[in-house]
Known about the structure:
Elements (H helix, E strand, L loop, with lengths): L15 H9 L5 H4 L4 H8 L3 H16 L7 H10 L8 H6 L9 E6 L5 H11 L12 E6 L6 H10 L4 H6 L1 E5 L3 H18 L2 E7 L3 H6 L6 H22 L2 E6 L1 E6 L2 E6 L2 H7 L2 E7 L4 E8 L8 E7 L2 E3 L2
Parallel strand pairs: 1-5, 1-8, 2-3, 2-4, 4-5
Antiparallel strand pairs: 6-7, 8-9, 9-10, 10-11
Helix pairs in contact: 3-4, 7-8, 10-12, 12-13
Bound molecules: guanosine-5'-triphosphate and magnesium ion.
Amino acid sequence: MGQGDIDLEDIDGVGPKTAQLLRSKGILSVRHLALFNPEELIELTDMTPDRVEKILRSAREAVFGTNRVSRATDLAKNLENTIRLKTNVRAIDELLQGGLEPKAIYEFAGEFGTGKTQLCHQLAVTVQLGQDRGGVGGAAVYLDTEEAFSPSRIINIARRFDLDPNEALDNIYVIKVVNAADLEDRIKLDVVKLIEQANVKLIIVDSIIALYRAEFRGRERLAERQQRLNYILDWIMRIAKAYNVYVVLTNQVLDVPMGYIEVKRPAGGNVLAHAVTHRLFLKKSREDIKVMEVLDSPRLPYKASAMFRITDRGVEDV
Ligand code: GTP
Ligand code: MG
């Protein structure tokens, strides 16, 4: 299925001039247009509210159809038939009931050195494998907020899976993100373009929280921080659903006092907790062994866990 299937000019209310305006702002297809809400489109284009309402309504109808009701049986069938993206670490794929599902947000939260970035690197490679080998034959976009991306790790992981290391690197688009506004622009425009034009199937944000913690400091700005975080997570979910792509976010942890001890909790508060679909907590075990535990998920059993190890070849079974 083509992602930019319908031309902008083909929908009601959009002539050559409006199409040109939209394209000049980075909106390249009707599917992309349908992701915007009226306020965002008015801000971006200076069109009148009436025109914007009309254009967005026809865009949504063209992309999502007019019938928005589905039977639960059909939904169940769809979920069963979705293609899972595997990490190719057997214990983790079993924990995730076959691998990652598309149209959902996976969060890997944990303290430093628990393997969050390594898992992201591995998925950026396995997404490129064919379906018979646990991939989906797609490319990845790596939104790097912590200077964490490492080409040499990709090369090692690619070799392990018999991929040409240069091709594997070519299929990973790295975007260095400097602040929250930058992340918003990159996701709303660049990431959608890469999905439509470069076969990107996996969105990685490593990490989602670092920028927000650094930029909105102190209690006074907490509400603003959470609002901005909520906004970007909502956009990521809109994209995941409209384009059937996979999403992985990494998150840091906070030490929360509980009586005499401190427990580690994912950062980002309720906003992040509600926005992610599957929340996975990573912990250190002994030596190079780590544990992934289900913290919150609509389908995976609470506290179920898997062990893995980080080696020169990436993330592996113990
Ligand atoms: P933060 O980003 O600091 O919060 O941590 P993280 O959870 O992202 O940690 P990451 O995924 O980067 O994992 C770091 C671990 O991977 C460390 O224990 C490293 O020793 C290990 N590691 C990284 N590269 C290699 C490698 O090439 N070989 C081996 N054997 N281990 C590696
Ligand atoms: Mg990291």
